[in-house]
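User: Here's a protein and a ligand (FE3-S4 cluster). What would the complex look like?
Assistant: Let me lay out the input and then the predicted complex.
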Amino acid sequence: MTFQGDDYLLAGEAPVKEPARQAYYIAKLRRHARAFEEEHGRKPFGCVRTFGCQMNARDSEKFAGILREGGFILTEEAEADVVLMNTCTVRENAANRVFGRLGQLTGLKKKRPWMVVGICGCLAQEDGIADEIRTHYRVVNLVFGTHNLYKFAEYLDKCLSEHARVIEIEGDSKTIMEELPNERKYRFKAGVNIMFGCDNFCTYCIVPHVRGREKSRRPEDILDEVRRLAADGVTEVMLLGQNVNSYGKGLEEPITFAQLLRQVCEVEGIRRVRFMTSHPKDLSDELIQAMAECPKVCRQLHLPLQSGSSSLLKRMNRHYTKESYLALVERIRAAIPDISLSTDIIVGFPGETEEDFEETMDVVRRVRYDSAFTFLYSRRSGTPAADFPDQVSKEAAQPRFDRLLALVQEIAAEKNAARVGTVEEALVEEADAEREGYVTGRLSGNTMVHFPGDPAMIGTIVPVHLTESKGFYYMGEVASC
Ligand code: SAH
Ligand code: SF4
Ligand code: F3S
């Protein structure tokens, strides 16, 4: 937009309706940016730091897009005039990392006193955190939560116009606001939100408390976004939600996730479709069939186990048993034999005995995951499990964690080794950071492969001969067709 356009837009009051209201505030940010440039002889720098999951990463693309359209140059934290930390609180160490960074930002702010330090995301939304920041972290002058994140431009304008400290946390609402600027990290692949929040209330998990109730986006809006992305050169999309298998609940026109997946696959130009996360309790045979029948759906499924003990699964409120999980895996493998399976496992959940833990090891041995994320249980205040009386000590949990990790790594290495010698398609994502003259690609099953290549190949899908397994990734070379 031109400066004259901004003057016209800003001559009136801020519109009440979205997204026009945020467009108005983005124009105001551009006005701040011009004033800053006149004073400092350079454009203002902005930085968004992301902690947490893919959904947070997707939100960060919006914040970065707002900063860029607001006249900021996107840069690193060390030189930024506005730093926004998009936080996670799923485990205690995720939250601690954020508070650790604030110490370093205090030093930077001494050098640039006009700096805006903002905190948003799941940690900011957690009960009591905004107040803690208000009283103990003076370096922070902007705080907002997950339910009002679409108002970032408005809040930042308030900080800059009034030199005010802005702390705004809102309760859950039904609003879905996706029409915001977007600074995509990759030009050829993109995450697309299909739903927000979570209704499952696993007893260890804080996500439903900070992300609110489950809300599905309308399929037309999702498909429009995918079509726009395809027109913009995107070939791989990742459909995002905390539990994509329950997509569609509460929409006027009923639709299942399997139906949505088929429709996304029909979008011309899209060559690969992934999704996460799948809750085992809601994974339907209809979805398995859709995955088996649609060649664009990547041969990868993330199916969090959490624990192999049926009694712990009950106390976790997961609504499946060891046996039903194993039966589900069998059905998936029967329909899609070449599927890569990955999982999440928690070690040391309250009440976990050696026998419970052995059940988890047993499932890992039987399923033979291609990869797994393993976590030590972290007590999150406000969740039911935090008050369970039989908390497991770190001394008991750590050796179990180490044994599990060793098993997971051993199996993953064996499974990767078994594919050496085959040719698979890889989407080339970037120049290899460590090897001159190499590029890095992602296989359908989600494993990375490094092979000799030119950066001009980035964004294309090429057949790669997997020549060597390095445990978690491959070395390869382009196969001649
Ligand atoms: N919605 C996804 C998971 C989101 S959180 C699902 O249900 O699969 C990602 C992972 O973090 C979870 O799968 C779980 O393994 C882990 N996690 C969540 N809360 C945790 C806690 N309190 N302690 C340790 N790990 C936790
Ligand atoms: Fe958390 Fe369970 Fe919801 Fe996943 S499904 S986000 S683990 S409550
Ligand atoms: Fe963390 Fe929030 Fe995602 S707590 S895992 S960033 S939904």
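Summary: The CA atoms of residues 424 and 464 lie 5 Å apart.
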